[in-house]
Amino acid sequence: MAKASPKNSLSVSSLAHESALRDYKLGFVSRQASLLGRREVLTGKAKFGIFGDGKEVAQLALAKAFKPGDWRSGYYRDQTIMLAVGLCTVQQFFAQLYADTDIENDPMSGGRQMNCHFANRYIDKNGNWLSQLAGANSAADLSPTAAQMAKLVGLGYASKLYRENKGLAFLKDFSLNGNEVAFGMIGNASAAEGIFWEALNAVGVLQVPVAISVWDDGYGISVPNKYQMTKESVSDVTRGFHPSVGKAGVDIHVGKGWDYEGLIELYTSGVENVRKHHKPALFHITDITQPQGHSTSGSHERYKSSERLAYEVEFDCLRKMREWIIAKGISNDTELDALEHEAIKEVEQARQRAWDDFLKPIEDDRKKLLAIYERIEAESGKNGLLKEAHGSLSRAPSLLRRVVMQSARRSMIQLASEDEDLIKPLSEFIDENQRIQRPLFTSHLHSETGRSPLKVAEVKPVFTENALEIPGNEVIQKCFDALMARDPRVFIIGEDVGVLGDVNQNFKGLQDKYSELRITDTGIREATILGQGYGAAIRGLRPVVDIQYLDYLLYCFQLLSDDVATLHYRTSGGQIAPVIVRTKGHRLEGIWHTGSPLGVIVSGLRGMHVCVPRDMVQAAGMYNTLFRGDDPALVIEVLNGYRLKEKVPENLAEFTVPLGVPEILASGTDVTLVTYGACIRVAEEALKLVASLGISVELIDVRTLLPFDVHQIIRSSIEKTNAVLFVDEDVPGGASAFMMQQVVEVQGAYSDLDAPPRTLSGQQNRGAYGSDGDYWCKPSAEDIAETLIAMVKERAPWRF
Ligand SMILES: Cc1ncc(C[n+]2csc(CCOP(=O)(O)OP(=O)(O)O)c2C)c(N)n1
Ligand SMILES: [Mg+2]
Q: Which residue's CA is the nearest one to ligand 1's atom 17?
């Protein structure tokens, strides 16, 4: 074997030296950003701060294992990684701390997320997907601890699909043969959350390239490991996950948070195995410290012993790295002092730039408003009219947009009785600012581009005279067959969807036709089934996440609500994940099978579309719409509709149901009856019961609860009938109250009502088992008929 020449080994080691010094400087920059960040909060320039101090060295080592195309799903301690892989600058770090709404300044969230909640922008302002191979990528962070673990499963799963499913090779901007690693980061205490264990098991079962780092600083805020984890060690208790002879698992590694050299070795070899062989790994990094404590909300001196505090100073990773640099002869005190000095200067300059950028538009507004005050006062001829407002606005120290707006609105209230012409500039200033500023904080709940499913053109179903009549489950099967044939990015995952073809046979034969990679059975783990699909959607695929029954949606509801539904909003339009969640519900039997918690769903899932099709043809039209757009959505099919025969439109694979457009199923003049899903059939039965009494009912299927009746079709109906009844099987005050608020308040239908608006819903309790339980717990046709009669009698007793 040829020996390295002395010249070569010298250059190799000098390269390593340079790299160590670069790393040390970056670590120091990161630490300085944490220290300054805390100061900015404590002096009132930012609201809250949580930082990555104490985790720098481990992250510098981990960053060396990152390659373009890789993904991060981490948490608020990861600033050093983000700086090291080029996904964030120090200036952007401060812009987010100040909550700068300009996405040029805070591209991670446009001021919407707390500091150190990272993300990169992977779609442009027109909704086009950018290359994910240009550099490293970061999924958008969220605050609930361990929630990042769910989508980590999918970020890794996408690599498996890209490597094994050759039909995806055309997606050149997303993957290079599935070589991308998904890196997860989590705190030691958060590893006590259920979702951590579910995700760990899932990546072990799936054998996907996921590398999880646990930053173990011994605490979760004030609570030590003794109360967090069996044996006080995540690597001890996960030993059983480690591969054994003939059995794949999750590699378990352990390293120390201050051991720069050892960590580089650990991560370089450990991650290589993850990348090459798609073997998941967990890196338990111990001996991590928290120099400034948990966050700006408190001080760790209150709960850490003096011994622990002294240990944290001694084992501070940057201090240890500096000692190592000197011991190795890489540098000396003088040079390192100079380097630190330079780092401090650079961070301060970046902070100042971020602050100036943040302040500029607000200062401009302040000047504009002060000039308006001066003008009004001069024109009013009333000396001192706005003296106080002018004084306090010009004296306001560190400014917020709110300070300017409050001043303007309070002045407007004060001047309410003044001449309109005089105060016009002020009212125009307020209107203009409201128009510009509210969207800074409220836009991008959904896609606002041409890729919004709301912009998908309506294609009406075409029913021929000899239209096929088949059971609902076959309609769904045909719909997904066509979707999968049309778009190779579509795949389905869930319990029993593969070999069995769904418990209701909705996917019969599809696995044989499209392979196990396109329609895949999963374990019973709703939260990470969602994460498996969601993470893959982030990476450009089109997953259908099948949650077996609506009643089990709650297992993944936290993630739907906190992560999926907020993603586009919290990144100010920088990220989107078109995951379609399919489930089946309504009209089941038993405490856990009768749920129809649509009130919970419509309240918790703003940011998703919620479709409640009455039958499977309608469902197919909704899927056709959703797969033409990029927004995430939930579709709840009617479980007891699968065996009912439906007429199938000739264009089943192409027709679309527009979102937010109700359908009038029966026209009438006495009462408008608004409902959806399984209740449509019950309502139709009720209509038959009252027909002989001459009661004429306009039956409207809302079809989608979110969005809700965007063209105000229901209000138009009420203009004619002057009475409205909302029916559903949720609890009283649930989704029926939501519908009533939308129609009566938002659409303004109250002025067309001759009688109080009514709701008819399920009981407070969960539905009791059996058909009798159903009859007394959910609205029946008789309940609806009697309510309709009462409503007509109330207004026209002479008709009876
Ligand atoms: C689900 C949830 N519960 C509680 C919290 C409040 N909280 C925020 S951070 C934290 C401690 C997390 O500790 P650890 O996972 O060890 O991370 P560290 O902050 O120590 O890095 C807690 C309890 C939260 N954000 N989310
Ligand atoms: Mg901790």
A: 187
Ligand 1 proximity of 196 Cβ (cutoff 6 Å): no
Nearest atom within ligand 1 for CA of residue 77 = 21
Helix H or strand E encompassing 196? helix 194-206
Residue 3 confidence (pLDDT): 41
- Kindly state the tokens that stand for 27: 């670590």
User: Is the model's pLDDT at 10 over the cut of 60?
Assistant: no
- Within 10 A of 468 (CB to CB), how many other CB atoms are there? 16
Over residues 745-786, the pLDDT tens digits come to 999 999 999 999 999 999 999 989 989 999 999 999 999 999
Please give the structure tokens belonging to residue 393. Answer: 């606005």
**26 neighbors 89 (Cβ within 8 angstroms):** no
Angle 461-467-469 from CA coordinates, rounded to 5°: 105
Size of the chain, expressed as the number of residues it contains: 800
| Cα of 289 from ligand 2 centre, angstroms | 9
Q: What is the pLDDT of residues 303-334, one digit of tens each?
A: 999 999 999 999 999 999 999 999 999 999 99
Rounded distance from Cα 86 to ligand 2 centre (Å):
25
Q: Is the CB of 145 within 6 Å of ligand 1?
A: yes
**CB 583 near ligand 1, within 6 Å:** no
Q: So what's the pLDDT on residue 591?
A: 84
Closest Cα partner for 289 from 88, 34, 83, 96?
A: 34
Give backbone dihedrals phi and psi of 520, rounded to 5 degrees, phi first. Answer: -130, 130
- Which of ligand 1's atoms lies nearest the C-alpha of 187? 15
Ligand 1 atom nearest to 294, measured from its CA: 19
Residue 344 alpha carbon to ligand 1 centre in Å: 29
Q: Does residue 374 contact residue 390 with C-beta atoms inside 8 Å?
A: yes
- Ligand 1 site, residue 215, Cβ cutoff 6 A: yes
**Helices vs. strands in the chain: H and E counts, helices first:** 26, 22
Query: Tens digits of per-residue pLDDT, 668-714?
Result: 999 999 999 999 999 999 999 999 999 999 999 999 999 999 999 99
Q: Indicate whether residue 188 lines ligand 1 (CB < 6 A).
A: yes
How many other CB atoms sit within 10 Å of the CB of residue 26? 19
C-alpha to C-alpha distance for 510 and 508, rounded to whole angstroms: 6
Mean pLDDT of 358-378: 97
d(CA 615, CA 622): 11
> What is the rounded CA–CA span in Å between residue 493 and residue 516?
10
Q: Which atom of ligand 1 is nearest to the CA of 220?
A: 13
Q: Whose CA is nearest to atom 18 of ligand 1?
A: 187
What is the rounded average pLDDT for all residues in the chain? 96
Cα(201)–Cα(191) distance, rounded to whole angstroms? 13
725-756 pLDDT, tens digit each: 999 999 999 999 999 999 999 999 999 999 99
Cα of 190 from ligand 2 centre, angstroms: 8
d(CA 787, CA 383): 65
DSSP sequence for 632-647:
-EEEEEEGGGTTSEEE
End-to-end CA gap in the chain: 105
Question: In angstroms, rounded to a whole number, what is the distance separating the alpha carbons of residues 184 and 149?
Answer: 7
Residue 254: what pLDDT?
A: 98
Give the tokens for residue 752: 């067309």
**Order of strands across the sheet with 663-666?**
663-666, 697-701, 671-675, 724-727, 758-760
- The protein residue with its alpha carbon nearest to ligand 1, atom 11, reads 220
pLDDT band at residue 5 using 50, 70 and 90 as cut-offs: very low
Q: Residues with Cβ < 8 Å from 436, sequence gap 6 or more?
A: none
- Positions marked active-site: 593
